[in-house]
Amino acid sequence: MSDTASEPRRILLIVSGGIAAYKVLETIRHLRRRGVAVRCVLTAGGAQFVTPLSLHALSEDKVYQDLFSLTDESEMGHIELSRQADLVVVAPASADILAKMTAGLCDDLATTLLLATDKPVLVAPAMNVRMWEHAATQENLATLIRRGISVIGPEEGPMACGEYGYGRLVEPDRLAAAILRRLGHDTDGTDTKQSVLAGRSALVTSGPTHEPIDPVRYIANRSSGRQGHAIAEALAALGARVTLVSGPTRLPDPAGVTTVHIESAEEMLSACRSALPVDVAVCAAAVADWKVAARTGEKIKKEEGAAPPTLALAENPDILKTLGQPGPGRPQLVVGFAAETGDVVARGTAKRARKGCDWILGNDVSEGTGTFGGAENSVHFITEAGAEAWPTGSKRAVADELARRIAAHLGAAGERGAAE
Ligand code: C5P
């Protein structure tokens, strides 16, 4: 897809304080070459590193600095300024501005615009490695991502302060490419508007398993597969290459997804193994905990007057636990579900540790919730950082939210892994 007049092409670029601010000058040049209109806002900290004149010369537009500027307000109010662009970019985003964004503080023009805007926001953090690694910064970032803010970088490398680590602002070409992608531009020959997971691979398990007793009978459960299928669809919609390993369901195979049909847990595990390596694995299947220990090839006969047969059960392989095992083939991100009837968060947290997965989506399947087989789901999103209750929504809405989180996680991990 090439640029067209219908593509949104206007950004508000907030330049906060940091030695890396010089990189935004080159970024503006990249963007201007692609016809993107860039309107700059310079914080007091940012002005210590780049001048309004440089920003003005490269953006060919007025540079805004003051919240209480009579001239600026009479030309254009700050609310209007915050909403005129198609995308708001903060680069470099200092630890200070990230903290203010998280807290909703607005004591200058930049933070006021960030609180007032109704447009998508992309932040490109840059700071000292210790400041970046500090729990406060990491928690602030997690909150911002949860609120829908996109993050690019920082990168690893030597810092201006002499230390080494993560904290460098991404290079101008990568920052410009990320901005163009979010504006819906073609940056590498493909339509990347919906492709935040392009180049990534995902494995999703879904549905129940059927554990054979004999050639005609089996043990099953009530899973409909709706949540797992919706997750496969949502990941594919973001551009991921998805393999869906599904037990027997009534659902059609999702479009744009490779679906592998299996029946038993053993078959599911073997199909999952064949799909590796992947970047992310989401185990949403309701895998039977037990299989029949000695499955017969013959139909078990009901003999007149004989006692009913006794079924000896054996434990099934735990697919989630297997995929979560540390090792070179482990997916970068392993996600499981915990269908519980008691304290969902406590049980889900314990399950996360027991299964060795990164995230657990805990849901209440008590009688009356309608979760099993129903269209809606209420989820507690459990990670290393704690538990977060998501509002009740359709299984597709839950899937979209999860896909977005996965994209944010893999995106951030990808940037962090990219040393110069
Ligand atoms: O242990 P429990 O069945 O409650 O764990 C639920 C999670 O583990 C789900 O993500 C499910 O897909 C996964 N699981 C699995 N293999 C099993 C049992 C559960 O992958 N044998």
Automatic annotation (TrEMBL):
E.C. designation(s): 4.1.1.36, 6.3.2.5
Keywords per UniProt: Decarboxylase, Flavoprotein, FMN, Ligase, Lyase, Magnesium, Metal-binding, Multifunctional enzyme
Pathway where it operates: Cofactor biosynthesis; coenzyme A biosynthesis; CoA from (R)-pantothenate: step 3/5; Cofactor biosynthesis; coenzyme A biosynthesis; CoA from (R)-pantothenate: step 2/5
Region described as Phosphopantothenate--cysteine ligase: 202-420
Gene Ontology BP annotations: coenzyme A biosynthetic process; pantothenate catabolic process
Cofactor: FMN; Mg(2+)
Domain annotation Flavoprotein: ranges: 10-179
Superkingdom classification of source: Bacteria
NCBIfam families, per the entry: coaBC_dfp (TIGR00521)
UniProt name for this protein: Coenzyme A biosynthesis bifunctional protein CoaBC
Species annotation: Marivibrio halodurans
